[in-house]
Backbone:
């Protein structure tokens, strides 16, 4: 499994309800149709200022292919307008093991 970890702050004019609404639209219209997509989790930090999304993919290649297709997202401008300019960071993780 491969994970994209995206950190960000919301733009000043965006609230969490709008973020979740737009995320739902992105899932329905685009992301769920991407080969290798598993799930997208949105988290808020304990002080409520920073957000972290974890997007799960079957493989690194599936994640990279989806990234190349991001220009085809029907309402990409609405999605990207949620993020405060300059606040986005990302990293990628390859899962080695999982224990319960």
Residues:
């Amino acid at each position: 499994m491969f994970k994209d970890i995206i950190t960000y702050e919301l733009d000043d004019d965006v609230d969490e309800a709008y973020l979740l609404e737009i995320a739902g639209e992105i899932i329905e219209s685009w992301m769920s149709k991407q080969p290798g997509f598993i799930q997208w989790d949105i988290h808020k930090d304990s002080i409520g200022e920073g957000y972290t999304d974890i997007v799960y993919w079957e493989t690194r290649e599936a994640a990279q292919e989806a990234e190349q297709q991001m220009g085809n997202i029907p309402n990409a401008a609405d999605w990207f307008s949620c993020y405060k300019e300059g606040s986005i960071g990302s990293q990628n993780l390859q899962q080695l093991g999982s224990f319960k």
Remarks:
- Residues 17 and 23 are 10 Å apart (CA to CA).
- The beta strands are 2-8, 37-44, 51-57, 89-94.
